[in-house]
Amino acid sequence: MRYALLFPGQGSQSVGMLAALGAPETIDTLKEASEILGWDLLGLVQSGPDDELNRTERTQPALLAAGVAVWRAWSRRCEAVPSAVAGHSLGEYSALVAAGSLDFADALKLVELRGQLMQQAVPAGTGGMVALLGLADDQVEALCADYPGDHVLEPANFNSPGQVVVAGQTEALDWLLVNAKPKGAKLAKKLAMSVPSHCSLLRGAAEQLHQRLSQIEVKAPAFPVLHNLDAEPRQNPDDIRDALRDQLFRPVRWTQTVQALVAAGAEAACECGPGKVLSGLMKRVAADVPAFALENDAGFDAALQHLGAN
């Protein structure tokens, strides 16, 4: 059976994540990441504290390591190569490591830098993100375009039909919170995100990230990795570098990505990392494609049984 792998991004982290996964790759990979980074990533994941794990420059390498740990455990137990893979935002880096495009050590240091650049790009308290439910993608785009001020307000994550996250400056987000429901939104909720990801406020950070990317070896992926930018795979290393740069200040087109995975023949999807966020979105975008969260042994067993791979 053809299947896709999905790698989660920021927001899926929690202290103790993957503790219910008995695979030895979990501890081994987190230990390896600690040695590469020079700080105790394993201890942070196991014991916290929460506020430290939730610091962007800590969250990003911790989630990347968690995704790679699950991938290593999965690839030991499942010989079938995925038909394609994708990662949500930060998860795109985990997907590229799994496909052999990025070296694990390079990717860890890269996403640590990515987190630092993102935090530095927008002063604390001046930007953020708001989740909107109940509006179509084009309605969200029109709503942002209707903002009468001169602050940034842009769609950032097209997560599923009727679920879009908007990023921007605080003044514009305050306007959105007041005006979204009169325009038809069922819910408008400010997220606990200090960084307005995937909008033009991060263009400068993206250029700095690209400078570092130019110094890192990037290989052609062993299997297709669909990029957030346009749900298209890339083979050329420079094209992959450019996609990772642009991803930082342009929206995550997750709905389109899931639709492309299904169109490419995926008959099931496995979420390769902590949490069940992407499994839930899969059900909203492609309800007839079974989705399995590989965050624990039960999820592994269910996925392997469904794929006929155990």
Automatic annotation (TrEMBL):
Annotated EC: 2.3.1.39
The Malonyl-CoA:ACP transacylase (MAT) domain is annotated at: 6-306
Q: Which Pfam family, any one, appears in the UniProt record? A: Acyl_transf_1
Q: What class of enzyme is it?
A: transferase
Single GO MF descriptor: [acyl-carrier-protein] S-malonyltransferase activity
Going by the UniProt record, its keywords in alphabetical order are: Acyltransferase, Transferase
- Out of the domains of life, which is the source? Bacteria
Q: InterPro entries of this UniProt entry? A: Ac_transferase_dom_sf, Acyl_transferase_dom, Acyl_Trfase/lysoPLipase, Mal-CoA-ACP_Trans/PKS_FabD, Malonyl_CoA-ACP_transAc, Malonyl_CoA-ACP_transAc_FabD, Malonyl_transacylase_ACP-bd
Catalytic activity reads: holo-[ACP] + malonyl-CoA = malonyl-[ACP] + CoA
Membership in a protein family: Belongs to the fabD family.
Question: Could you tell me what this protein is called?
Answer: Malonyl CoA-acyl carrier protein transacylase
Please name the source species: Banduia mediterranea
